[in-house]
Amino acid sequence: MFTHINRSRFCFLLNILFLITLLASAKCLLGQTKPAGATFPQKEISYPFTMLSSGLDTFNRRFPTEKIFLQTDKSSYAIGDTLWFKSYLLSGYSLGYSKQSGILYLELVNEQSIIAKRISVPVALGISWGQIVLSEKDFPEGLYILRAYTNWMQNFGEEAFFKKNVFINSLSADHWIVNQSNSMDVKDGEERIGLSLKFKKAGTQTPAYTQFKWQLTNGDKILKKGLYETLNPRLETKISLGEDVKGPLFIEATESKAPAKSIRFPLVFNGSSTPDIQFMPESGYLISGLPCKVAFRAVDSWGKGINVSGVVRNTKNEDITEFKSTHKGMGSFMLSPGDGERYTASITLPNGTTSIYSLPPARTSGTLIQIRNDAGADSIRIYILFSKDLLNAKTYKLGGFSRGKMTYNCFFNATSQRLTLRIPKKLFATGISHFTLFDEKDTPLNERITFINHKDLLNIEIDSVKNPNHTRDSIPVKFRVTDISGQMVPGSFSMSVTDDSQILADSVQNNILSQFYLQSDLRSTVEDAGWYFNGAKEADDAIDLVMLSHGWTAYKWKDILNPNIQPAFAPELAFQVKGKVTNIVNKPVGGTRVSLLAMGKYSLAQDTITDARGRFVFDKLPSMDTVKFIVQARNPRGKSFNIGLELDEFHGPASTEYPQPVYLPWFVNSRKTSLHEVENKEKIKSELVKLRGSNILQEVVIKGTRKVEDVKVEYSFGDKEVMNAGDINIIDFLAKNIKGFRTAHTPGIITGAQYKAFETNSARIIFSIDNVSLGSLYTPIQGFDAPFERYDFISSALTEIKVSDVLSVDVGKTFFRNGIYFVTVAIKTRSGNGLSLKRTPGISVYRPLPLTYPKEFYKPRYALPASNSSLSDLRSTLHWEPNLITDESGSNSSHFYSSDKTGFYTVIIQGTDLKGKFGFASYKILVEK
């Protein structure tokens, strides 16, 4: 019988219930699908658009889209911190809460594109919140991508997921920090880097003499290597770059002494050796004889916009037009291509060097869409341009779309080279609207997106704190939310408060406004996306450059008009265990009894009967955060023999193909905020030592001897670790749990030839499955051990093994000779059948990814004498409150206690009315001694 009750989980569900009641009483139109922010007239669509419009409506009903935004308490973390988050899961069409999904998946993907952590959280009314503990075991120092999605969203590809960079730092006084003052110049037509690096410790102590082995790399290629001693003031040298050097350059520095500490970081210098510059004609193409706006975007190896200028020249080397970037490396110019002409752009980079880029070639025939969207106008001007050969009176169609609906349409004949249209903006909701030009056969010819801004954001007014704020003081925060007409707005909001001396709170970063109105409809990441919603006058012009240069997640008309297309991933409204029962010839078997037994922390037993399709489902299950299910199917005679059982298990998206951006780690040209965090952590550590004295458990080192031929198990992973791993294969499990696990190119022990192998800490790994060496099962294809064949065999075999099939994993060492040792990984499967992995007929063991429920954020209460602490309070996150619900008056309030740090704190409040409107506000609070 299920008896466990979790207090935090109960509070979460109670809050959701309160939100439902509040919004219902406030007539928040739960279930409304009509987007707010603009009226969509029920205009009768003319015959030429009937198929397109009905096809789009049918597709939207069958494939409703979802959008996600995650607010986190801060943008960077130290190992051991807790990442607090609130999620908003909304309908992609109405931007009201999503009715499609009740479970949300969150992942932290590391720089090796391995999922370091995956959790699932329950969602109600599109809202959820929770936490991820950033333990040292799971999260080595580095950049991680926090991505969020539902199972249903996998139908639309990874471009539909929410993604955010999260930095996890190893902030310690013993960490090496690096100051870079590199330079770049050109000599005899060849780029050269003047390398200038200074190494020191993050703490105040003077580091002892240390020798580093260093190397400069470009991808897998080593450009230069050498030795550096800390007795020297700086590491300085000149390095010439070849033409084949592309992308960012990295320095890898490793201490020569044992135990060796290593750091890896990208080079920083003025300018960029290989900027990425793209030219994008408006609506897709250049057409000979037709004037066209050409947008461009210049970014460095970090993905940041850089200022460039240049000139366009024709094949006669004549100057046609000049241009320069106006915002974040973006800009535009007009070009009317001549017949048979090709164009190049001579671009001057920030470091003064000049590079030549080719513009896209012009087509001899085609159409163009041009849009003029002036911020102060109440309508959009659209120009349709035809090449002369298309002036044949054929019919064309223009469709305007907003949030998945066709809100404008017209059709016309090609009788002149230029057609002008004026379209009211009120037909479109705030956000990205899209226009497509079709021919008579409904073939899309051109697409153009534009941004509509009705200035109808929610206004969040944070009341000023009248009294002076002091350290360890209770600080009240009251806010009020109104809409564009001044009416009070009920809704769901979240608040974070961080210390500016430790956390860089950036008001222009992606927020709830920029995510739902802008970023979620674009392929490329918008730099400083929040800036476009802070009221800057330049934002209206700059946002049109974003429309031209960042790539829209376009409608796939072939899929939309295909009635046979089926979703590959099902929606998940709640946690269920379901699957299918088949017979010996793989045909579904109806009327079969299926039993479900929960084991471990919870006890639960249920039975059900399969339907005519052999399908079964166990729903209305109690909330369980960790559980193992035994599912068994029996035929009418009560036997499981010759019964096939297939469970619908969750399969997350592949992470190996996900690229990580280049980033500057905290220990390179360190900001004061990072060094303050180091100081604070060292101070707390020192105070703990004084407070606890000899009660602190000191490190214990056990030394001993062993026989060379022995294999000694050093640590094991049993049922508990395997159960918590989720639905991954054994390679991903080992990568997460064995420090230094990687694929490497290493010399063979005998021949010295380069081989590809798994290793950890420079030691080769030997795998065994159910006491059988995996290497012994390998048979060379060509009669000899080819360098990569053995690795490919072992990798393929391990990939096929699911963690749910594994009983235990033992990791140990065995010595070879001359001090060389191997790491042994012994895998035991539940079936004991090795690679065959034959399961018992009709029985499956199912370990679902456990649901994560929210915990309460710790709040000190200095007003109570018993709660006062002699330890310094140096928190970087002062307050986190994910569930602030405004009532009918649009108001709510909270309070928090300041720490021992004086200076400015940043308060961020953002949220939604769950009907398609959003608000964001940032506020500074000054704390004095």
Keywords:
11% helix, 5-stranded mixed β-sheet, 929 residues, mainly beta, 7-stranded mixed β-sheet
Structure description:
By secondary structure, the protein is mostly beta strands. Helices cover 11% and strands 39% of the residues. Strands 43, 44, 45, 46, 47, 48 and 49 form a seven-stranded mixed beta sheet that branches. Strand 53 (903-912) and strand 54 form a beta hairpin. The two termini are 56 Å apart. Mean pLDDT is 83; it is low at 1-5, 21-47, 694-710, 747-753 and 781-785.
Topology at a glance:
Blueprint: H1 7-25, H2 50-62, E1 66-72, E2 76-78, E3 82-91, E4 103-109, E5 115-122, E6 127-133, E7 142-149, E8 162-169, E9 176-180, E10 183-187, E11 190-201, E12 211-218, E13 221-229, E14 235-240, E15 250-255, E16 262-266, E17 276-281, E18 286-287, E19 292-299, E20 309-313, E21 319-324, E22 330-335, E23 344-348, E24 354-358, E25 362-363, E26 367-372, E27 379-386, E28 395-402, E29 405-413, E30 418-424, E31 431-438, E32 444-452, E33 459-462, E34 469-470, E35 474-482, E36 491-499, H3 512-517, H4 539-549, H5 557-560, E37 577-582, E38 593-599, E39 604-609, E40 615-618, E41 628-634, E42 644-647, H6 672-692, E43 712-717, H7 719-723, H8 730-737, E44 741-747, E45 754-760, E46 763-769, E47 772-773, H9 789-799, E48 806-817, E49 820-829, E50 843-846, E51 877-886, E52 891-897, E53 903-912, E54 918-928
Parallel strand pairs: 2-8, 18-25, 34-54, 46-49
Antiparallel strand pairs: 1-3, 3-6, 4-5, 4-7, 7-8, 9-11, 10-11, 11-14, 12-13, 12-15, 15-16, 17-19, 19-22, 20-21, 20-23, 23-24, 26-27, 27-30, 28-29, 28-31, 31-32, 33-35, 35-52, 36-51, 36-53, 37-40, 37-42, 38-39, 38-41, 41-50, 43-48, 44-45, 45-46, 46-47, 48-49, 53-54
